[in-house]
Amino acid sequence: MTTQTERTDAINWVLRIMRLGGLWPLSTSREEPPVLAFLKVNYRYALHVPITFTFIGLMWLEAFVSNNLEQAGQVLYMSLTEIALVVKILNIWYRSTAARRIMGHMKHSSDYALQSEQEHSYWQQQQRLFKWYFYLFLLASLGVVYSSCIGVLFLHDYELPFDYFVPFEYRNERRYYYAYGYSLIGMTVTSVSNVCLDALGCYFLFHLSLLYRLLGYRVRGLQYTASEVEFKEKLVIVFKLHNRIRNLTVQIETLVSPYVLSQIVLSAFIICFSGYRLQHVGIRANPGQFVSMLQFLSVMVLEIFLPCYFGNEVTVYAHQLTNDVYNTNWLQCDKRSRQLLIAYMEHLKKPTKIRAGYFFEVGLPIFVKVDIRYAVFTILYS
């Protein structure tokens, strides 16, 4: 059967990167020297204050002090993407204890232990599929960064791949690579951090949808019970499991709500402005910039689509439980069992939905609305 580590196999590699990136707490023990424990606790500040937050602050400063309106607009829409990252970082730091508790509960709790080889096989298949989603997402994000970083090296002028306020004159051979190196490091750290935090938020929703699928599988299995006594015992187990999953749903919604809200709102603005800029940057006039902006736009769309997709999966599989209950052999049950099933179906009438900051439901409908707004925006300003 599956081990505790295999139960969350898809996110384990992300957590390792997050520990190195100061986004997930490093493990500490009471036997460690106080200095080492202090360094582990404050490592995240030592990494992100001089790189992530300073780099983002310099990008915003460049947007405000730049005399070139076109350049200021380009820096501004890149800065908006980084604001979403700041919200994600502050959210995971503030809720790190809750995030670790939820992750430990999903990994170690006996309530979610897989009971058959079929459950184990299906679980591992879905975990591997989730891994591939974010391998591709990571490659796409880093592709945007490094294609821009490599492209500027072939220009005649000393241009930075991502503009930010540089407090010294860098447009010369001696100092250019200092500014270039900081831009490269800053965008790499922010890009990897962004992908990992997106992966973590989506994994919580993905794992939750798997638990609802597991619950539905066990509800459907009630029709194969041999006796009425066994049916009632398994039905009570299903009730308890569903109650624990509903409680877990509330905790995960509280954890991911700020991240999803900031991601969808800011990315929606960025997609609209990126689409508008694409219409004014012809592929023949500037093919390099056009392809780079197209890559960036695709990543922004993906950042909205993934949480919407996994949030939608939670709603769909939670709603599917009503059909699963109806498809049991309830006609052959005694009166008491049928009353329990009816009461359970009444309980299922309350929809399970993930909300983003109590403003809207996280699902594919909100993703479609963003696409519609983008279409309207481009039509009005074309």
TrEMBL record:
Key words, A-Z: Cell membrane, Membrane, Olfaction, Receptor, Sensory transduction, Transducer, Transmembrane, Transmembrane helix
A single GO BP: signal transduction
Where does the record say this protein resides? Cell membrane
The protein's matches in Pfam families, at most eight in alphabetical order, are given as: 7tm_6
What membrane topology term does the record carry?
Multi-pass membrane protein
* Source species, domain of life: Eukaryota
Q: Which GO terms describe its cellular component?
A: plasma membrane
List where the protein spans the membrane.
45-63, 75-94, 132-156, 176-206, 256-278, 290-310
Q: Could you give a GO molecular-function term held by this entry?
A: odorant binding
In which family does this protein belong, per the annotation?
Belongs to the insect chemoreceptor superfamily. Heteromeric odorant receptor channel (TC 1.A.69) family. Or2a subfamily.
- Subunit field text: Interacts with Orco. Complexes exist early in the endomembrane system in olfactory sensory neurons (OSNs), coupling these complexes to the conserved ciliary trafficking pathway.
The record's annotation in PANTHER family points to: ODORANT RECEPTOR (PTHR21137), ODORANT RECEPTOR 46A, ISOFORM B-RELATED (PTHR21137:SF37)
Function according to Swiss-Prot or TrEMBL: Odorant receptor which mediates acceptance or avoidance behavior, depending on its substrates. The odorant receptor repertoire encodes a large collection of odor stimuli that vary widely in identity, intensity, and duration. May form a complex with Orco to form odorant-sensing units, providing sensitive and prolonged odorant signaling and calcium permeability.
Question: Per its record, how is this protein called by name?
Answer: Odorant receptor
Name the source organism.
Drosophila navojoa
Recall the taxonomic lineage recorded for the source organism. Eukaryota, Metazoa, Ecdysozoa, Arthropoda, Hexapoda
